[in-house]
Amino acid sequence: MPGREAGPPLLLLLLPCALEAFAQRDRAEQLLAAPGAVAIEPARVSYGTLGALPEGLAGFVARRQAKRMRLRGSPRALAVFDWLQLPLAAALVERHPGAELWHLGPPGDLDGLAALALDLATAPDLRPAWERMEALGVESGRLGSERRL
Questions:
Q1: pTM (2 decimals)?
Q2: In-domain check, residue 35
């Protein structure tokens, strides 16, 4: 199946900017400490540029970006922080059927996303994210998955 990489289950964090410049860097770094989490920084075609394109063209560009990604495992969840990340997130979900879409950005930031994504942004800590990771088979490094043999 296209896009079905061998390897461990993954959580992909679609970062809206470089990690060093990210306003939610601490939260992202806590998730990235998990063995099964991978950061995806923006491509040369920025999310702002992608968001300004007509929907069909944005989808085409996003699908090409998703196709070019070389991952060390199989995505089970994709976390977005900004609505401009939706074309790439949709392309990745299309490429990796069954992967969940999560919202981790500021509450209310993605009004139209509520029906599409699991909203983990309102939790006071990351425990719900770690629990969901574990339920999807993604190693969180927090709740015992790292001890499985």
A1: 0.81
A2: yes
Q: Which residue, 128, 121, 123, 124, is CA-closest to 107?
A: 121
| Of 72, 110, 115, 76, nearest in space to 92 by CA | 76
What residue numbers bound the domain in which 109 lies? 9-147
Domain-embedded: residue 59: yes
Per-residue tens of pLDDT for the chain, all 149 residues = 454 557 899 999 999 889 999 999 999 999 999 999 999 988 776 777 777 778 888 888 888 888 888 888 999 999 998 888 888 888 999 999 999 999 888 766 555 555 567 888 777 788 889 999 999 999 988 766 554 53
**Are 34 and 142 within 8 A, CB to CB?**
yes
Q: How many domains, the chain?
A: 1
Instruction: Tally Cβ neighbours within 10 Å of residue 82.
Output: 19
CA 23 to chain centre: 17
